[in-house]
Amino acid sequence: MYETISLVNYNLLPCTGCGQCFHSKQCCQDDDFNHLHKLMNTADGLIVVSAHYAPIPSKLAILLEKAEQIAFLGRFHGDLCRSSLFGKPAAIIGHGGGTEEIMNGYKTVVLKAIANALMYPIDMDIIRIGDDRDPGVVFPVAKVSKDPDSPFPVQEYDWPDIQRRITPIVQALAGRMLNQDGSQLA
Q1: Domain membership flag for residue 5
Q2: Residue 4 counted as domain residue
Q3: What is the pTM (predicted TM-score) of this model?
């Protein structure tokens, strides 16, 4: 079973650096973050899908910053417990309004930035695939056009191509979430 969570539906508040999360392992000012962090902790694995219109979308940056802060403060103060997300597999998928020619740029700006945030101090297990062992996959739009009634571009996607691109990383994630005997990892 899976659950799709759209961060646009949450009112995530920026970290104020108050340090209260060191004691409580949650944000004292952000119930939406606490809800999402709990979902992350109880999931068997994560797929992070991020658009590329800026290096990391603002709400994803807030979520990652707070998860990192909770993990870092515990580690800095010698907490023998690892991050609550330690070893949990995570797959990263990036997309944007660009064409095939700029996909390598998406790998650097989107995939690697998110992977770095999830690796230390959170210590998630980032799924890497392909010959160059990229920390995720990216896909382009098939076509971009203008809508005279909207300031935003209309993006059309090649869904069979997207499925072809993301299937290997989804399969790798599923494999990490299951033991050889088919039971779920602890």
Answers
A1: no
A2: no
A3: 0.89
Domain residues for the domain of 137 are 14-177
CA angle 8, 14, 45 (to 5 degrees): 55
Q: What is the 3-state secondary structure (H, E, C) of the chain?
A: CCCCCCHHHCCCCCCCCCCCHHHHCCCCCCHHHHHHHHHHHHCCCEEEEEEECCCCCHHHHHHHHHHHHHHHHHHHCCCCCCCCCCCCEEEEEEEECCCHHHHHHHHHHHHHHHHHHHHCCCCCEECCECCCCECCEEECCCEEECCCCCCCCEEECCHHHHHHHHHHHHHHHHHHHECCCCCECC
Task: Provide the number of structural domains found in the chain.
Answer: 1
* pLDDT tens-digit map of 97-128: 777 778 888 888 889 999 999 998 999 999 99
Amino acid at 27: C
Q: Over the stretch 142-178, which tens digit does the pLDDT of each residue have?
A: 998 999 999 998 989 999 999 999 999 999 999 999 8
Listed in sequence order, the residues at least 6 apart from 49 whose beta carbon sits closer than 8 Å to its beta carbon are 92, 93, 94, 95
Q: Is residue 3 part of a domain?
A: no
Q: Is residue 9, in this structure, part of any structural domain at all?
A: no
Whichever domain contains 144, its CATH number is: 3.40.50
